[in-house]
Amino acid sequence: MMHILNIGIEQKLGQDxxxxxxxxxxxxxAVAEMRILAEYCLPLVRTGGIFVASKGxxxxxxxxxxERAIQLMGASLLQIxxxxxxxxxxxxxxIICLKGKPTxxxxxxxxxxxxxxxx
Length: 119
What we know:
Layout: E1 4-7, E2 23-28, H1 34-41, E3 45-55, H2 60-72, E4 75-83, E5 92-99, H3 113-116
Pfam families: GidB (PF02527)
Keywords: Cytoplasm, rRNA processing, Transferase
Region (Disordered): 100-119
């Protein structure tokens, strides 16, 4: 059975042992910068699972800034995919990361820290 998590941002969930490293897929809307989303979401994804972040039509610079955070969380950038949207925002982009190894126990950091001091 596949376990999927659709995340707003639940800042403490990644340190909860009953959720940590247990989801096949985590999906997040464009609720925060990619560096922050990676730190909150990737600790929840099992090794071999994927994290998908929804972003605007031109996220390349944001994704570039997030590469270090993605790697620190044990993942790599798998694909950047344009997605047609019928919303008023038009075209969206799916940022897809593949989790290759466990996230170090120190992540995610305390709530609020990733937003104040992004990786």
